Amino acid sequence: MNVVSLGFRTDLMLRRLAGAVITERPSYLAVRTPGNPGFWWGNFVLVDRPFAAGDAGRWADVFAREFPGAAHLALGVDGIDGDAGDAVELARLGLTVEVDTVLTATRLTPPARPPAGATIRPLAGDADWAEAFELRLAAHGEQDASAEYRQYVARKLAEERALCDAGHGAWFGVFVDGRLGASAGLFADGDGDRLGRYQSVETHPDLRRRGLASALVHRLGDWGRGELGVRTLVIVADPDYHAIRLYRALGFTDTEKQVQLYREPPAAEA
Predict the structure, then answer these.
(1) Is 169 helix (H, G, I), strand (E, B) or coil?
(2) What InterPro entries is this protein classified in (predicted)?
(3) With 50 as the cut, is the pLDDT of residue 270 above it?
(4) DSSP string covering 76-110
């Protein structure tokens, strides 16, 4: 399967770097992350085209066969224009349709208002990564999350730290008065396309609107171009969330759209 979506191409790059198992079939890819089964977008099926009449049953069966016992359902749709396909078929599976914007840049514009008194540097050591765990929970309003969700976050961060340790990228933090206020990662695989993909730009709710994220994304971009040899920076954003304006102000431009379809597990299993 020749994947055309830049969003999914860089998703698959990250999955491969992390050691995921990717099985190629004639019309889809099955992506497995055995070490973190609660990570939906590490355990999903990428289909080769938008849903057509009759596809609901077909793709539900494929997912069940590839992921027996999975409580969630996650399907990516390859393409660049945001077309998920036949609305009737999507409704039959009770799917949530998420269409994100994929933005790219070759060079970034420095932020107009760099944060005063902040230190931006790569995370280093257990204490920094422990702060990153708490920041992720706070950024998503999950300080009182279940044990299952906390385990998922811990496993995801352990994966991201391992990618950094292996030299595939770095995770930078913005420290304000010694406290981690924002963080994000950037990774590349060194292939001929020289793509660098951002991951998880997160700011603590108490420190938002102070320019931390803009400074962080800019610094990471410069680092990636210099240290990883990245030629094209890639970031994926919710088109209805304010962060996309921040990325555009730094010089990112809308390039394509990425379609993800999912059905959450029953509440007791989420």
Answers:
(1) strand
(2) Acyl_CoA_acyltransferase, GNAT_dom
(3) no
(4) EE--SB---B-HHHHHHTTPEEEEEEEEEESS-PP
Count of other CB atoms within 10 angstroms of residue 142: 13
Helices marked H in the chain: 6-17, 55-66, 87-92, 126-139, 147-165, 212-223, 243-249
Among 118, 51, 129, 35, CA closest to 91: 51
Paired tokens of 89: 């078929």
CA distances from 63 to 3, 43, 145 (A): 19, 10, 27
What's the pTM value of the predicted model, to 2 decimals? 0.95
The domains found in the chain, sorted by start residue, are: 6-101+259-269 (no CATH), 118-230 (3.40.630.30)
Tokens of 84: 């998920």
* Amino acid at position 5, single letter: S
Token pair 């990618």 is found at: 163
Backbone angles phi, psi at 18, to 5 degrees: -85, 0
Contact 48, 62 (CB under 8 A): no
Residue 269 has a pLDDT of 41
Phi, psi angles (nearest 5°) of residue 202: -130, 135
- C-alpha angle with apex 231: 228 to 234, nearest 5 degrees? 90
Estimate the crossing angle of helix 126-139 against helix 147-165, to 10 degrees.
130
Phi, psi of 29, rounded to the nearest 5 degrees: -120, 140
Kind of pairing, strands 195-203 and 232-237?
Answer: parallel
- The answer to whether 236 touches 189, Cβ cutoff 8 Å, is no
CB 160 within 8 A of CB 185: yes
Give the SS3 label for residue 203.
strand
As a whole number of angstroms, the distance between CA 167 and CA 185 comes to 12
Q: Return the pLDDT at 267.
A: 62
Higher pLDDT among residues 239 and 268, named by residue? 239
